[in-house]
């Protein structure tokens, strides 16, 4: 018999994108430090089944879970902050919800009743939430969460969110107020140096219309929340002043846990849930980290160019950026990231020549994932420049495939080398092809997704030195692979495929150039950024940043630690 789980909801007011994911991650980390097991659910009210078909310009990156779920980027926030692994089921969309309900209706589950938002949709929401409390935190244990943190996407007052707030209201009545909590995150505007609470008051009013009052209100703002404004919010929110918390803008998201801890938010949450403090929290790694990052800024900068196509919304590369920065922090490198929008470059006259001039300023070049024709030939140019000028290079997913096509064109001399992904725009010799198990007519969920193992047989390879292991498990999201009929031609001409998928041994996963030809030229079919964690960066990024900083790959195992912080 498992003890009763507590439910902590967090919703947003005024606008989306004000930091619910970071706030929720920080709260989860603090509760964990107090000795409690926590898990998460992200609710997105949109009708897509998952995030897989959504435009990165509008919604940011598609994060991939170990079990192959294509989910909202906030799931990545939770995994990085708490060093945990979540699943497809820790992300709930209205699309998933209605798909399940309609399937039940087709199967006669409702016994002829009229299927309605209340009770059927709301009941399904509550069941989804409660079922997550029975899911083990790790596959090899029976540990269940003590507290489930549920983020409701969007903002209070959105029409599509109504059924979720009704589910919260019903759960408070059914589970008891001591078992269900609600946090509202809002933003305090500053106009003419005066903090304005009227928009936040309207958010409180919108929440009240759903039948709910927040137990705690967290205020984002440019500066610390002032007492008069705190008094106003307490009155309109019908809560005490000490239930209102201030999170002013800061230089690093790593400051947020300390900001909340100083105001004793986690203790107030435990008090509401009638839970004891089980241990003294230790958040020293966060409290000292801000100063550590400031110290790094005084050292010589190392510049890496990220050559992508979604640069108008950097959230499209959130996990990648976090992984690079975490790697640089770990090995004490003052990393500067320069974002190059290849679609913008495509419209320039002499685009390739202009791009080459841009590449000269970089200590290393990274070509990330992406889909489609736009910018592909410029990705090819980036790969060529890095290879020929011996600039440390990392290609991820589509960047891996671009490196293969570039090698075929410029080393093998196959000038029409291309990828089958571009079959409608560019006809040629396909060095990258659809995987046979993929249906090219489908899109959503129709990829090789989630954790897959890679075998590294050659212990002298760069890949083995990076991972120090013969078996690597990383997360994938792709439809295409290196054409098996072209592999021999590539390898006979110097390209090394040092990693192959464990299941068949036929699918290429890692490519590299030998050390005597290039200091660091590596491409991977998978997405290592999805397994990189705060304070535990993926070793591939550590090695890549090290190569950028030192001009060559350090063969000895790199010691990743934060023990030499300046206090």
From TrEMBL:
Pathway terms, separated by semicolons: Pyrimidine metabolism; CTP biosynthesis via de novo pathway; CTP from UDP: step 2/2
GO terms (BP aspect): 'de novo' CTP biosynthetic process; pyrimidine nucleobase biosynthetic process
GO MF, one example: ATP binding
Keyword Hydrolase carried by entry: no
Swiss-Prot/TrEMBL catalytic activity: UTP + L-glutamine + ATP + H2O = CTP + L-glutamate + ADP + phosphate + 2 H(+)
PROSITE patterns: GATASE_TYPE_1
The entry's keywords: ATP-binding, Glutamine amidotransferase, Ligase, Magnesium, Metal-binding, Nucleotide-binding, Pyrimidine biosynthesis
Signal sequence, renumbered to the chain: none
Enzyme Commission no: 6.3.4.2
Annotated ranges, domain Glutamine amidotransferase: 314-545
GO cellular component: cytoophidium
Chain ranges of the CTP synthase N-terminal domain: 6-275
Its biological purpose: Catalyzes the ATP-dependent amination of UTP to CTP with either L-glutamine or ammonia as the source of nitrogen.
Protein family per UniProt: Belongs to the CTP synthase family.
Record protein name field: CTP synthase
Organism annotation: Paramecium sonneborni
């Amino acid at each position: 018999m498992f003890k009763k789980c507590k439910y902590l909801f967090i919703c947003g007011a005024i606008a989306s994108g004000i930091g619910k994911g970071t706030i929720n991650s920080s709260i989860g980390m603090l509760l964990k430090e107090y000795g409690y097991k926590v898990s998460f659910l992200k609710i997105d009210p949109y009708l897509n089944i998952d995030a897989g078909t959504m435009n990165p310009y509008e919604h940011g990156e598609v994060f991939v879970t170990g079990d192959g779920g294509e989910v909202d980027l906030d799931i990545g926030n939770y995994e990085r902050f708490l060093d945990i692994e979540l699943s497809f089921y820790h992300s709930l969309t209205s699309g998933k919800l209605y798909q399940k309900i309609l399937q039940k209706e087709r199967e006669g589950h409702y016994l002829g009743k009229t299927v309605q938002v209340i009770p059927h949709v709301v009941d399904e929401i509550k069941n989804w939430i409660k079922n997550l409390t029975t899911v083990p935190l790790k596959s090899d244990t029976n540990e269940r969460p003590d507290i489930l943190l549920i983020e409701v996407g969007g903002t209070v007052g959105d029409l599509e969110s109504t059924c979720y707030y009704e589910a919260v209201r019903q759960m408070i009545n059914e589970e008891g107020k001591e078992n269900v909590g609600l946090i509202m995150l809002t933003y305090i505007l500053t106009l003419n140096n005066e903090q304005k609470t009227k928009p936040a008051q309207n958010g409180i009013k919108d929440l009240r219309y759903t039948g709910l009052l927040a137990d705690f209100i967290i205020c984002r703002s440019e500066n610390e929340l002032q007492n008069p404004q705190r008094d106003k919010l307490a009155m309109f929110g019908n809560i005490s002043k000490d239930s209102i918390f201030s999170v002013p803008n800061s230089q690093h998201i790593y400051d947020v846990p300390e900001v909340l801890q100083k105001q004793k938010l986690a203790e107030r949450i435990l008090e509401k849930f009638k839970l004891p403090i089980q241990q003294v929290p230790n958040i020293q790694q966060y409290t000292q980290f801000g100063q550590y990052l400031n110290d790094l800024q005084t050292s010589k900068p190392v510049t890496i160019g990220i050559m992508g196509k979604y640069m108008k919304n950097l959230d499209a590369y959130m996990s990648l950026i976090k992984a690079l920065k975490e790697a640089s922090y770990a090995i004490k490198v003052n990393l500067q990231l320069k974002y190059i929008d290849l679609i913008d470059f495509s419209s320039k006259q002499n685009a390739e020549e202009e791009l080459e001039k841009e590449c000269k300023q970089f200590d290393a070049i990274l070509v990330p994932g992406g889909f489609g024709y736009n910018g592909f030939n410029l990705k090819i140019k980036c790969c060529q420049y890095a290879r020929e000028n011996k600039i440390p290079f990392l290609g991820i997913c589509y960047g891996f495939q671009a490196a293969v096509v570039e090698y075929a064109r410029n080393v093998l001399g196959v000038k029409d080398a291309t990828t089958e992904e571009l079959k409608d725009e560019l006809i040629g010799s396909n060095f990258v092809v659809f995987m046979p198990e993929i249906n090219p007519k489908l899109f959503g969920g129709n990829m090789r997704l989630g954790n897959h193992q890679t075998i590294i047989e050659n212990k002298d390879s760069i890949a083995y030195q990076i991972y120090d292991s013969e078996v690597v498990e990383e997360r994938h999201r792709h439809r295409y692979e290196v054409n098996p009929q072209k592999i021999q031609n590539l390898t006979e001409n110097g390209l090394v495929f040092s990693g192959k998928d464990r299941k068949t041994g036929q699918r290429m996963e890692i490519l590299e150039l030998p050390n005597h030809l290039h200091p660091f030229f590596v491409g991977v079919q998978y997405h290592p950024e999805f397994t990189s964690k705060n304070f535990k960066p993926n070793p591939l990024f550590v090695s890549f940043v090290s190569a950028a900083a030192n001009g060559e790959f350090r063969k000895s195992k790199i010691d990743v630690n934060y023990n030499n912080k300046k206090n």
